[in-house]
Description:
Blueprint: E1 3-8, E2 14-20, E3 27-32, H1 40-51, E4 55-59, H2 75-86, H3 90-103, E5 108-114, H4 116-127, E6 133-137, E7 154-159, H5 167-176, E8 181-185, H6 202-220
Parallel strand pairs: 3-4, 3-5, 5-6, 6-7, 7-8
Antiparallel strand pairs: 1-2, 2-4
Amino acid sequence: xxxxxxxxxxxxxxxxxxxxxxxxxxxxxxxxxxxxxxxxxxxxxxxxxxxxxxxxxxxxxxxxxxxxxxxxxxxxxxxxxxxxxxxxxxxxxxxxxxxxxxxxxxxxxxxxxxxxxxxxxxxxxxxxxxxxxxxxxxxxxxxxxxxxxxxxxxxxxxxxxxxxxxxxxxxxxxxxxxxxxxxxxxxxxxxxxxxxxxxxxxxxxxxxxxxxxxxxxxxxx
Length: 221
């Protein structure tokens, strides 16, 4: 089990975060939320990654718009999450990612994100120099930025039946980023890694997480 902590961004913003794992571990992971806040699912993900041997921090990125938001997965929750995301400037979110990485204390650090967080993990790989590896699960914003140059190794996971990320977008990303590891799960839709969603696919989620952990083991040492 982890604990709630507070982070301080360089612009003076203070935000909550969920931290798990041993602070004296050699490797760290920044875990980035979906558009539902740092809710029970994200805490479960953080705990599971911490159990794999990482110091983990999951920043509450919605705190810039509204502190302490935890949403479910109904249509109203989706609409609220999308509105909160739109209210937060990209520069502020990157400052929060930097604060999360700094909290991990300079150890070799990776970033892994889901949904909105998957897109942000791509930004972390292409616009920041603090991550040694980036893993992006069903990031809908990646295709629009597919020609950006990653500064670290990248792995991506997509569902073939994801209505919000067309297969054409995935293939465009593959063409633009031939060095990235890209996995497509034939029967999976959006959010297939979240046990609280109707789209959850246990076998695919387990395989994607195994691949993610193997990827970080290679690149974080």
